[in-house]
């Protein structure tokens, strides 16, 4: 079937940016089958775009390079002028920021990290850096940040023993550990935040937007779509429920509230 909006049709080709969390190969394996499904159902071609690092992804968002983007960094105050608007949210469980160590680490509490090197994905990661660093500063625990480029990059450094602890996204950490047989402990966990949304730039025509949202929102109810979602989830170790559903900016209010109060340098 073809999902066409009643008010007319735009079709066309649009860029789909994805925040750098995993390797480019894993990201493509996850997203390309979903984007191909959208193209076949709507005649809208969404072209995957992956920046090398999360900061480079944010620079693209700030410039408005992406038509659609899968990222939770759009709520950074300096990125909000780009005008991206939430249209879809994941159906899976909310995520949390965590500070984790290897299972056999002698570190037992956050205070033990004082004066140590602690790994983070990047200085713009929300639950992987902003949220845990905010907590460390609130407790007056001074650490030296080491950045891994993306979520799985710093998880690899933790596994190799290059950092004593890491700030991570709870969901990405659990999936990475399951795929790699890594055993770890959680020293601290934040309140929950909705997982990364799909947002749209104001320039995208409403007809194309409506078709894309309808297609992705309906994937988990379509046997073909659900099969694709399940296969994509297996590539990264994601658990059910799969897919996305319609959402708005209001669902992500706690991100905006966090940035209003944080004292972490460079985030306000």
* Count of DSSP H/I helices: 8
**What is the H/E string?**
EHEHEEEEHEHEHEEHHEH
How far apart are the first and last residues' alpha carbons, in Å? 45 Å
Q: Name the helicity range.
A: 25-40%
Which keywords apply here?
268 residues; alpha/beta; six-stranded mixed sheet; five-stranded mixed sheet; 8 helices; 11 strands; 37% helix; globular; disordered N terminus
Commentary on this structure:
The protein is α/β, with parallel strands linked by helices. The protein has helices spanning 24-42, 54-63, 126-138, 151-159, 170-180, 206-218, 223-236, 253-261; strands spanning 13-18, 45-50, 68-70, 85-90, 95-102, 117-120, 144-147, 165-169, 184-193, 198-200, 244-246. Helix 3 links the parallel strand 6 and strand 7. Helix 1 packs across helix 6 and helix 1 (24-42) runs antiparallel to helix 7. Residues 1-9 have low confidence and may be disordered.
């Amino acid at each position: 079937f073809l999902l066409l909006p009643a008010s007319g049709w735009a079709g066309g080709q649009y860029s789909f940016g994805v925040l750098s969390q995993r390797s480019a190969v894993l990201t493509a394996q996850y997203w390309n089958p979903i984007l191909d499904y959208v193209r076949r159902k709507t005649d809208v071609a969404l072209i995957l775009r992956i920046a090398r690092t999360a900061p480079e992804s944010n620079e693209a968002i700030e410039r408005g390079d992406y038509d659609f983007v899968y990222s939770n960094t759009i709520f950074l105050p300096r990125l909000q002028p780009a005008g991206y608007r939430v249209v879809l949210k994941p159906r899976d469980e909310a995520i949390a920021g965590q500070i984790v160590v290897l299972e056999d680490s002698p570190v037992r509490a956050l205070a033990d990290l004082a004066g140590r090197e602690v790994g983070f994905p990047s200085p713009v990661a929300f639950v992987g850096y902003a949220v845990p660093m905010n907590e460390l500063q609130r407790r007056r625990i001074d650490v030296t940040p080491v950045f891994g480029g993306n979520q799985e990059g710093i998880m690899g450094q933790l596994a190799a023993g290059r950092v004593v602890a890491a700030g991570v996204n709870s969901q990405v950490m659990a999936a990475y550990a399951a795929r790699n047989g890594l055993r770890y402990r959680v020293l601290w966990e934040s309140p929950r935040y909705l997982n990364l949304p799909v947002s749209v730039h104001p320039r995208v025509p409403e007809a194309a937007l409506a078709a894309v949202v309808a297609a992705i929102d309906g994937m988990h109810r379509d046997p073909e779509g659900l099969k694709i979602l399940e296969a994509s989830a297996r590539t990264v170790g994601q658990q059910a429920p799969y897919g996305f559903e319609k959402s708005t900016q209001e669902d992500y209010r706690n991100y905006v509230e966090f940035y209003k109060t944080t004292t972490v340098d460079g985030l306000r």
